[in-house]
Specification:
By secondary structure, this protein is an all-alpha fold. Helices cover 56% and strands 3% of the residues. It has ten helices and two strands. The protein has a two-stranded antiparallel ribbon. The relative contact order is 0.16.
Length: 355
C-alpha cells in the first residue's frame, strides 16, 4: 500500500485564500461565541445545554452536572433554635452555606454594626426555615414520586411515544425541583445583597458568593476566588477555551492545535444534540432540519480538514513559528515521518500518484 508521501499536489493561490478565509471565519465564530458568554447579563451556564443531552451519551454528560433534580439541596432537617432551644425545620444545605458565608462576611467586614447585621441574617434565615416547615410534605411527595419514576425507567420499554413521555417527565421533575431551589437562591441573593449594602452602599446588589450547590466534584486544587464548584469550573473552561481557540485560529497561531481543540469541543456538541431520527426530543426546526449531518457536524469536518493542512502558515503567525525553529524541531525529532505531506517545504504538499 502507498502512503501519503506517494501523492503530490499543490494548492493554488485561490485555494489558499479560501482556506485562510475558512480558518478566519470559523475562528471568528468560536471567538465571538466565547466572548459573548462572558457577558454577565447572559448568565451563561453549560448546565442548561448539557442538562438536555440525549442519545447514548446523555448519562455521561449528566454526571458532570450536580444535583440536576435538586434532591440534595432540598434535604430538610432540624436545627436547635439559639434562643428557645426548640428543634426547627430547615433546609440543611442552605443553612450550612448561609452560616459559612455569614461567618466569612463578619470576618471580612469587622467594622460593621454586627447587631444590625444579625437582624438582617436572622430575618432571612427565619424566612427560609418557615419555608422548610411549610413545604416539607410537598417535597417529601416530590422525592417519592421521582424515585418511583426512576424505578420505572429501569424497565426497558420501546412502546411508541414512551421516549417522549419519559423525557418530558424528567424535565418536569427538574422544573419542579428548580421551583423550590430557585426561590431559595433568590432568598440567599437578597441576604447577600442586604448585608453587603450594610457594609458599603456601593456593594448593594452583590450576589453569587453563597455556594449552595453540592460540593461533590469541586476542583480542590484551584483557589476559591477562581472557582468554587465543578459547574463554575466547567463554565469558565468553556468560555476561555472557545475564546482562545477562536483567537488562535484567526491569528493562525498554533492553528493545528486550535483546530483539534475546537474539533474535540464540537464532538461533545454533536453527541449532546445527537441529530439522529427517532431520538426525542428532535432538534428544533428553527435551527434547520437535520438527518445525521447537522451544522455542527459540517463545522467539525471543516476543523479536522484545517488541522490536516498548514493553514496557519498561510497568512498567519504559524509562518514565523515554522521558519523560526519549527522546521528544525520537526527535522530533529523526525516528526515529518508521522505525516510527510504536512511538513513539505514552502507549504507545498507533494502529491503525484505513484504506482
Amino acid at each position: 500500500m502507498s502512503n501519503c508521501k506517494n501523492f503530490s499536489f499543490q494548492f493554488c493561490i485561490c485555494s489558499i485564500a479560501l482556506l485562510v478565509l475558512l480558518r478566519v471565519a470559523i475562528g471568528w465564530h468560536f471567538f465571538y461565541e466565547g466572548l459573548h458568554k462572558f457577558d454577565p447579563a447572559e448568565g451563561f451556564s453549560a448546565k442548561g445545554f448539557l442538562g438536555v443531552a440525549k442519545g447514548p451519551t446523555a448519562e455521561f454528560y449528566f454526571a458532570f452536572l450536580p444535583d440536576l433534580s435538586s434532591e440534595q439541596r432540598l434535604v430538610i432537617g432540624t436545627v436547635k433554635d439559639e434562643k428557645t432551644g426548640r428543634e426547627i425545620k430547615t433546609f440543611i444545605v442552605y443553612e450550612e452555606a448561609w452560616n459559612k458565608f455569614y461567618t466569612a462576611f463578619l470576618k471580612h467586614f469587622s467594622q460593621i454594626d454586627q447587631a444590625e447585621a444579625d437582624k438582617i441574617f436572622n430575618r432571612y434565615r427565619a424566612s427560609m426555615r418557615a419555608g422548610a416547615a411549610d413545604e416539607e410534605s410537598d417535597i417529601v411527595a416530590f422525592k417519592a414520586s421521582l424515585n418511583r419514576f426512576r424505578e420505572m425507567n429501569k424497565i426497558p420499554n420501546d412502546a411508541p411515544y414512551e421516549g417522549k413521555r419519559r423525557f418530558d417527565s424528567k424535565m418536569g421533575y427538574r422544573a419542579e425541583g428548580d421551583r423550590w431551589t430557585g426561590m431559595l437562591e433568590k432568598l440567599g441573593g437578597g441576604l447577600e445583597s442586604d448585608l453587603c449594602r450594610l457594609a458599603n452602599p456601593k456593594l448593594a446588589g452583590t450576589k453569587g458568593s453563597i455556594v449552595t450547590v453540592p460540593e461533590k466534584g469541586v476542583i480542590k486544587f484551584l483557589p476559591v476566588p477562581v472557582v468554587k464548584t465543578q459547574m463554575q469550573a466547567m463554565d469558565l473552561a468553556v468560555m476561555y477555551a472557545l475564546t482562545a481557540i477562536g483567537l488562535c485560529m484567526m491569528l493562525g497561531f498554533c492553528n493545528r492545535l486550535a483546530c483539534l481543540g475546537g474539533a474535540a469541543f464540537l464532538v461533545n456538541v454533536v453527541m449532546t444534540t445527537y441529530p439522529v431520527p427517532g431520538v426525542y426530543p428532535p432538534m428544533p426546526s428553527a435551527v434547520g432540519n437535520f438527518l445525521f449531518v447537522s451544522k455542527d457536524v459540517v463545522e467539525l469536518i471543516a476543523m479536522l480538514f484545517l488541522a490536516s493542512v498548514p493553514a496557519g502558515r498561510w497568512g498567519g503567525l504559524d509562518y514565523f513559528l515554522w521558519n523560526c525553529g519549527g522546521k528544525q524541531f520537526v527535522a530533529k525529532f523526525k516528526l515529518d515521518k508521522l505525516c510527510p505531506c504536512c511538513c513539505e517545504k514552502n507549504q507545498t504538499v507533494q502529491t503525484e500518484d505513484t504506482k
